[in-house]
Amino acid sequence: MVDALTGDVIGDPNELSTNEGKRAEEDNYLQEAANIDAALRSFSAVTQRAAKGGEGVERVTGQGLVFNPDPITSLATALTDNSPAVAFEPAYNEVNLLELAKFNNVVRLEGPWVAITDFEPPNTIPSTTADGVWTAKRGDNAFNDVMTYYHIDQSQRYIQSLGFTGIQARPIPADSDGMSGADNSHYVGPPIDRIAFGHGCVDDNEDADVILHEYGHAMTYHINPSWSGGDSRAIGEGFGDYWAETYSHSTPNGASFQADRVFEWDGTCPWGGRSVNVTGVQYDPDKNYGAHEGIGNGVQSDELWSTPLFQSFLELRGRDVPREEIDTIVLQSMFGLGAGFKMHDLAAAVVATAKQLHPQGVHSGIFQAQFEKLNILGPDGSVPTWPGGVDAAGAAVKR
Ligand SMILES: [Zn+2]
After folding, report:
1. H/E segment holding residue 45
2. How far is the CA of 180 from the centre of ligand 1 (A)?
3. Parts of the chain with a pLDDT under 70
């Protein structure tokens, strides 16, 4: 594995750390290793030039059309992948695309926080324009390019507006048409550190929830480079879902249309999406929770973490606490955990951070109560005990 800019050897493909998708079945490390060559070849000459100091690269503001966050949420209506093009017309929003790279009279979707790049099959060349204006709509991959650029860029600018200047603060390579066309997307961890979106059924990046979920994985690895072990994989999935939903909630219909669902649009496909409001399950502190694990009652491990976070968010928003304050607590609490942390470790950190940032506020009490509901915390931030039950002979039983 060599640095694309300097040619220095920086690692071995066997060290590839993580490959987490919106759903299971994508742990194909060998394919990742095979793709590295292609990634280096396609790493744009403009991005390389920009990284070397930007000689000859001008930064311009472009325009494009996006769904925000997705067509069924913004229109509050039912659509499917096969609905006629005209049904999507009212869902297009014209947005500015900030700090695009212009070089040799060509404008590219390469900015300070994301670079649209082709590194996975199918081989789809990133779209460019001469004037910075993208007019593409769904069905044309230039639309997927714009969706990916816009939603990652705005998320990074929002993170920085909260005062966090070092969370994935680099142009992450993003393949808007990857995963060999599967109905899945993934973030590949450091040192590769990039994101790709598949187009099976609904194109994944027609739904901002998928884009922000995958970006959420990138965020966790930059907040905590030791992110591994314990319940870290379920927490990473749950955090990505939370990050998608707190954004959706801020969009015009996001708070009212299926507010407890993640991936409303992409979830119209057979995989179905996920919830951020599950009940009827309890956290078992003696178990380690992986990504996308079924834990009974039709609930996945990811939802065990996203539910208390997002239900706290809704309760706090209901009391007029700004989104920014809640997201700041959630991000701040994830620093310094090291490896092998459990849900109750991070939950205790969330409550402590809330107390520290807002000693007189309702924040910490609301988080504490939501974590207690699912047995992620015991009273007063203590480690929970498994409520379990007893068998016929009176011995403690684990479910
Ligand atoms: Zn994921």
Report:
1. helix 45-51
2. 18
3. 1-54, 387-399
